[in-house]
Amino acid sequence: MFGVEQACPLCRVALPRGPEKVFDEATRSFVLVGLLVERGYASWSTLPEWAQEELDGALSGLRAAADQGFAAAQYNLGVIYEEGHGVVRNDIEAAQWCRKAAEQGIAVAQSHLGLLYSLGCGVTQSYEVAAQWYKKAAEQGNAQAQCNLGRLFEEGRGVGQSYVAAALWYKKATEQGFAQAQVNLGNLYHRGVGVKQDYVEAARWNRRAADQGLAKAQCNLALYYEKGCGVAQSDEKAAQWYKKAAEQGNEEAQTNLGVSFMRGCGVAQSNVEAEHWLRKAADKGNADAQYFLGQIYYEGEGVEQNYEEAVKWYEKAANQESVGAQYYLGVSYERGCGVAQNSEKAVHWLRKAGDQGFAYAQYYLGNFLENGHGVAQSDVEAAQWYKLAADQGFVHAQYALGTMYEEGRGVPQSDEEATGLFRRAADEGNAEAQSQLGFKFFSGRGVAQSDEEAGQWFKKAADQGDSSAQYHMGLLFKEGCGVAQSDKEAAKWWQMAADQGHAGAQFSLGNVFQKGCGVAQSTEEAVRWWRKAADQGIAGAQYSLALSYDEGTGVEQNDEEAARWYKLADAQGFATGKTF
Prior knowledge:
Layout: H1 19-38, H2 49-67, H3 71-83, H4 91-103, H5 107-119, H6 127-139, H7 143-155, H8 163-174, H9 179-191, H10 199-211, H11 215-227, H12 235-246, H13 251-263, H14 271-283, H15 287-299, H16 307-318, H17 323-335, H18 343-355, H19 359-371, H20 379-390, H21 395-407, H22 415-427, H23 431-443, H24 451-463, H25 467-479, H26 487-499, H27 503-515, H28 523-535, H29 539-551, H30 559-571
């Protein structure tokens, strides 16, 4: 099996083979069997008879060489026991053989023994002992040991924490082209610890490792291209590197590639492709992938909409503290999408997201508390949640909190605080806040009164379709406050607001049609708009409508209808001058 035996030239008695020769022959046999397994023709536990005999002979030979103190055989035997190839896996035996080789100064064995101590495999876990063995191997130039020792210095495990020492050992390993050390050194340059911060250097070292096929480096390089950090920004190159890493099973790259397909960044937009890559990472438990996969099913764009599937993935991610998933799971419970509607569970998940600082969740929690929806009503708590979201620049929360200050609910009444919050939201384009800010200037509450400023803010809101602002624009033009007086402009803005159902504008529009101010006079149109306003409870409109029925102007005279509308106006305290 191991070749022709050598004999003594005098007595022709077979000479014992030296451990080196035994090791070489055993290794060749072991490699032969290993190739059989590697190529899928057999497994270590189900070898053909001839291969089993070859393996038994190889193991016997390795043990014989190891027993004679041959260090390479001792190390290889340790690895075989660690991996359980052809033997019952035994970490203790693996460590013992590895130690024998390490004690003879074999660098690779020293490095591996350091790893066993780091992991606590077959030995009592100890970073201190691991560092000692790594150092022995590193000083002999073993790149793996140099990299691992650098990592211990970076993390302060078993040695005094030192980024400088970490960088030193990483550099030694990178000089030998060791890919993982290149990534680690790049990370130090990125963070600016142990070396001067330099994003270009960070990207360069990750590129070197990426070119060697290291998935983590490929993913890092993709991130650099995506953000334009240390390299010229390029979504296309980012996607290319994400794909290389994703094809090697890197979860982060699979997730980011999926998101790239979702958003059409660097690749043609495709939720089908997005679903493919996100599912790979999600199935491995990646919370970000689970969240985005939920998003795809929730939106149903490019794939069949499936709220139940969305909720399934949201829940998996939410249980891993994914803040976005917690928020959307809360929204799903509130809307009854994919789950039975349950406001209490909605509040539960929104609170979890809010506690992590998610502004959307904080705002909705404030809204639920303000209205007692799914939780005990509390203006004080509502204001607290609104403030958390408002402080993050969430405009809807700024407007809501401003309203609470204006009304003194949950917070001390303060026109100044209200105005400040309305201004912050208004500056971000929130129409409701712009309208409220206009009213503040119009009334001089919390700010110096200014019709001109009022007009500017009302106009901004009105142009966005805010009916209250459109109504107030009509008032300004009617009275010539801050703008040139114009009945035509007043009627135009009231018409816009009235068409949206604004009761005050409907009443005012009825009045201008009655008088023909800025519009062609029409009592019929006046009655039509008064009726709309009256139906919404505007006492003045109810009186005008009653008077129209009483006098038969714009409508057929009807005493009963006149009396009915007089009574409704009178019930609201409008002095009709009628006795019922």
